[in-house]
Design a protein that fits this description.
The chain is an alpha+beta fold. Helix content is 45%, strand content 13%. Strands 1-2-4-5-3 form a five-stranded antiparallel beta sheet. Strands 6-7-9-10-8 form a five-stranded antiparallel beta sheet, covered by helices on one side. Strands 11-12 form a two-stranded antiparallel ribbon. The two termini are 39 Å apart.
Length: 497
């Protein structure tokens, strides 16, 4: 079934009719501004300027001169020889020399450019419009990253301006093989989306699949980079993230050099990196700014934190409920002593403390920054101490829940830490139901899910399954010396692409 598209509405050569049409479209828009003036030998010709004054800055002194900057030596309304015929003939035959000026031939283009912050000029007797790009809404300058603090390495971050973000990456990777492609999404937001890759390094299968999945977003109003995650990843219901996020240009650069695809959205400081494999979530760019031995120890610490964050509460429930014989006698006596007069089983106790901890964590995030951290720390101390004194929870359970939370904070990627928070609860249920056997079943199902999962065309457990021992060691367990890791960039035959 074919779809028909209506022809674009032409611009009326009568400036009053064109003005009435635009005023009808932008009715009830208080920032829609119209400036009218006359020109010619006896000021018999009229022209109108249109803009949204909340998007265009410094328009009062610049836009009339920008209109006629190509008509040298004519200087606007003061020139006696300036007529609509001369203007139309000039622009129809010569175009424009400035990259900030465009010639538009439909009302749809006029509306689109107005909402992009341009100034539109209509001249009586000409069925075209002149669009002048003006300074837009001010954005914050490049500053230090807020979500990824650093000790060593670059201290700049991406911001909400798309051109600035692309420029930061272009300044670090100076090759024509770095490609950036533009998409426009949404009938209302018309958000600019840009994805980039290095043509001779990126996996062609990944790129083709990525572009295929993005082909359906043109009619969707995308507000942030994170919206696109569900289009890129194949399994939206999996708790494990299949893309990474960053706001650091050096992380983006490193990802591009290893064959990843990056994505920007206008108005969002967050950069998406895909494919996101399991081993990618355990390393940071700062690993390569530290000494080899120290970075390797930190990687091992993250692995231990991962195991603790996902297994500690469920393992305690299984041991204390079903397998007390596996606990050393002295430790078992200490646990029993602390659990005396606790009215709840270990599972309910753990569930309550995990609920309180997650509640405090969310409260600390949502509260204003100056008081959020104080409330979360004081709240945790007060609730933990009160729970022990009220015999609602034992000290060992408070310690386990606190260690589990701290271990999840050690994950370099926040979206992986969220996955661990989600997985803890079904593991606790399996441990309370079937003990160690239930944990074995849960871990087996989890492993089956991970082996089935893919990020674009690559297996999520690449390095583990299929087993690539060298890659697993170098990217997960050991940070090899930099000089042994650097390789000459691959390039396809035939020169520069």
């Amino acid at each position: 079934m074919s779809t028909t598209h209506s022809a674009p509405e032409p611009i009326s050569p009568n400036v009053r009719e064109a003005r009435a049409r635009l005023e009808e479209i932008f009715a009830d828009c208080h920032d829609f501004t119209v400036k009218e003036w006359s020109y010619g030998p006896d000021l018999e010709y009229s022209a109108c300027g249109f803009l949204l004054n909340t998007l265009s800055q410094n328009y009062r002194t610049t836009y009339t001169q920008a209109l006629f900057q190509d008509l040298s030596p004519l200087k606007g309304a003061l020139d006696a020889d300036l007529t609509p015929d001369k203007i139309s003939r000039f622009f129809d035959s010569s175009g424009v020399s400035s990259h900030t000026v465009q010639i538009l031939d439909s009302v749809d283009q006029v509306v689109r450019n107005l909402t992009d912050g341009h100034i539109i000029i209509l001249i009586d007797g000409w069925d075209h419009a002149i669009s002048c790009e003006m300074p837009g809404v001010e954005t914050r300058s490049v500053s230090e990253p807020t979500m990824e603090p650093v000790v060593f390495g670059p201290h700049n971050s991406t911001i909400e301006d798309l051109k600035t973000n692309i420029g930061l990456i272009r300044a670090l990777i100076k090759t024509p093989r770095l490609k950036f492609k533009l998409l426009n999404a949404g009938p209302n937001c018309r958000r600019e989306i840009v994805y980039g890759y290095i043509s001779d390094i990126v996996c062609p299968d990944d790129l083709n699949l990525f572009e295929k999945r993005l082909s359906s977003i043109e009619d969707k109003d995308i507000l942030d980079t994170t919206y696109l995650e569900e289009w890129v990843e194949p399994s939206v219901y999996s708790p494990f993230p299949q893309v990474r996020y960053t706001e650091r240009p050096d992380v983006v650069t490193s990802a591009l050099l290893t064959g990843k695809i990056i994505m920007f959205v206008q108005g969002s400081p967050t950069v998406m990196i895909c494919p996101g494999l399991f081993i990618d979530f355990f390393s940071t760019s700062e690993d390569f700014y530290q000494r080899t031995v120290f970075s390797t120890l930190i990687r091992w610490l993250r692995l231990i934190a991962f195991v603790m964050a996902i297994t500690l509460p469920s393992l305690y429930i299984a041991l204390s409920t079903f397998h007390t014989e596996l606990i050393p006698t002295v430790l078992l006596l200490a646990i029993l002593d602390t659990r005396e007069k606790i009215p709840f089983p270990a599972f309910v106790e753990a569930l309550l403390m995990e609920f309180f901890f997650e509640l405090l964590r969310e409260a600390g995030i949502r509260l204003p920054r100056p008081i959020g951290s104080a409330v979360s720390i004081v709240g945790a101390l007060v609730i933990g101490q009160a729970a022990i004194q009220a015999k609602i929870a034992s000290p060992i359970m408070v310690i386990i829940v606190a260690l589990t939370g701290i271990a999840s904070f050690a994950m370099p990627q926040y979206n992986l830490a969220i996955a661990l928070r989600v997985l803890r609860f079904p593991l606790m249920i399996m441990a309370a139901t079937l003990g160690g056997f239930g944990l074995m079943i849960a871990y087996f199902l989890l492993l089956l899910h991970l082996t089935k999962l893919k990020s674009l065309s690559q297996a999520y457990l690449t390095g583990f399954a299929p087993l690539d021992f060298r890659r697993m060691v170098n990217e997960l367990l050991v940070r090899a010396p930099i000089r042994s890791m650097l390789r000459k960039s691959r390039q396809r035959p035939g020169g520069v692409r």
